[in-house]
Amino acid sequence: MDTFFNILTRGVHFVRNNPQIIYTIFLVIVIPLAFFLTSEQFLRVAREDQNRLERSRIGVLQDVFALFAKWNLDDTKFLHDRVRVVAHETDTMTNFQVLGTEDGESFPILVSMNGEEEGTMLTPDPHTLSLLRTAMAHPAQSVSSEVFNGGVRYWRSARAITATTSNTAVGYVFTELSMAQGDYVARRNIFDAYMTLLLIILLIILLLIRQARIIDYATLYQRLKDIDSMKDDFVSMAAHELRSPLTTIRGYIDMIRSEKLSKKAEEYLKDIDSSALRLNLMIGDILDVAKLQAGRMSFNLQSVDVSEDIAAVIDSFQKLAKDKGLLLSFDRRTLPLIAVDTDRFRQIMINLVGNAVKYTSKGEVHVTAEAIRDDVTIRISDTGAGISAEDQGKLFQKFFRVRNEETERVTGTGLGLWITNQMVKAMKGTIMVESIRGKGTDFVVSFPVTENKK
């Protein structure tokens, strides 16, 4: 009992937390029930129409036969031939008799499709007797009744044969039709209809189950979206909180540098400053990712010649390149104006040029910028290790970093190129990579021209 109660409690709790399941259960019950009731109503109407058609057919047959029988009631041979013809043409006919008037509770059989019965007396069962007496009371119409015998359905019908000069009954036309064949076809059709209905219901249930799963997925997606938003808010808040003490640490580093220190202490201070700077850059990347994902990063687009901005970025990396023994160069020229946010554009160039210098161990890093058709195209080329075709497809994904012997000692978050790609797209530009493993890498950034510089 406790187990059942626990299961029931969990079920109620699940439905309360997932109200869409009520809608699904409602549809699973109502739609099949509606199909069932509609089908049952249709089959009921079809059966009624079939019965009405059979009664009408029997009535017409008896009306016609009674019409000429009253003029030939004494000519039993003529009537016998007509009965045999009708019985032969109607394969469901099991009994066709022309009866005389009632004698007690018996009726003389004048003509029968079974010739041996002619001249004998029919003592009908109570049902048939009632049918014949009803026909006598209503001589102008055929009277029919449905009976079952041995599990088979029959239509028994009686029609009074009236005198030629009055409506007095002088005989009866009595017929019995077996509905076995028609009922078999009807049962088979009903069975097929119910099987089709069952198949439809199963398909509907499967569709509703799938719909319920889709609703669950949508609910789960919304929850994940909310959690992801909470995560972004937390990361953004944490990054801001980390940046404040880092600024203080770097301030103290600058103060200590003004003091006279031993050579070893200066090396320690340099390492501390380098680590603080690296952590500050990482925090900056995290904040940029949060802003881009939330759509909160603003872009102040202005038409500018970016050659000066590129040159400034190149100059800022000259010392690092020289320390690594690299040649860092830029073919500076006047460029057409493009619509960019200058600060964001410099951040893009810092990421790309910085990566080129960082991942190139020997050789050079060369930057070009030129107008190609309706775009200003900037190419950052290096002679580094290169990137495989497989890694190129993942290069602009978050947190992806190329892993090989040449890059394993280089630190990074794997966010820089994702941020760069998002910023380029936000300013209507394009970025792509061209690289051959072991030969070097080219990053190509293009922005549409807004106006040629005079």
From TrEMBL:
<feature type="transmembrane region" description="Helical">
    <location>
        <begin position="191"/>
        <end position="209"/>
    </location>
</feature>
<feature type="transmembrane region" description="Helical">
    <location>
        <begin position="20"/>
        <end position="38"/>
    </location>
</feature>
<keyword id="KW-0472">Membrane</keyword>
<keyword id="KW-0597">Phosphoprotein</keyword>
<keyword id="KW-0547">Nucleotide-binding</keyword>
<dbReference type="GO" id="GO:0045121">
    <property type="term" value="C:membrane raft"/>
</dbReference>
<keyword id="KW-0067">ATP-binding</keyword>
<dbReference type="InterPro" id="IPR004358">
    <property type="entry name" value="Sig_transdc_His_kin-like_C"/>
</dbReference>
<dbReference type="Pfam" id="PF02518">
    <property type="entry name" value="HATPase_c"/>
</dbReference>
<dbReference type="InterPro" id="IPR003661">
    <property type="entry name" value="HisK_dim/P_dom"/>
</dbReference>
<protein>
    <recommendedName>
        <fullName>histidine kinase</fullName>
        <ecNumber>2.7.13.3</ecNumber>
    </recommendedName>
</protein>
<dbReference type="GO" id="GO:0005886">
    <property type="term" value="C:plasma membrane"/>
</dbReference>
<keyword id="KW-0808">Transferase</keyword>
<keyword id="KW-1003">Cell membrane</keyword>
<keyword id="KW-0812">Transmembrane</keyword>
<keyword id="KW-1133">Transmembrane helix</keyword>
<keyword id="KW-0902">Two-component regulatory system</keyword>
<dbReference type="InterPro" id="IPR036890">
    <property type="entry name" value="HATPase_C_sf"/>
</dbReference>
<dbReference type="Pfam" id="PF00512">
    <property type="entry name" value="HisKA"/>
</dbReference>
<keyword id="KW-0418">Kinase</keyword>
<dbReference type="InterPro" id="IPR036097">
    <property type="entry name" value="HisK_dim/P_sf"/>
</dbReference>
<dbReference type="GO" id="GO:0000155">
    <property type="term" value="F:phosphorelay sensor kinase activity"/>
</dbReference>
<dbReference type="GO" id="GO:0005524">
    <property type="term" value="F:ATP binding"/>
</dbReference>
<feature type="domain" description="Histidine kinase">
    <location>
        <begin position="237"/>
        <end position="451"/>
    </location>
</feature>
<dbReference type="InterPro" id="IPR003594">
    <property type="entry name" value="HATPase_dom"/>
</dbReference>
<dbReference type="InterPro" id="IPR005467">
    <property type="entry name" value="His_kinase_dom"/>
</dbReference>
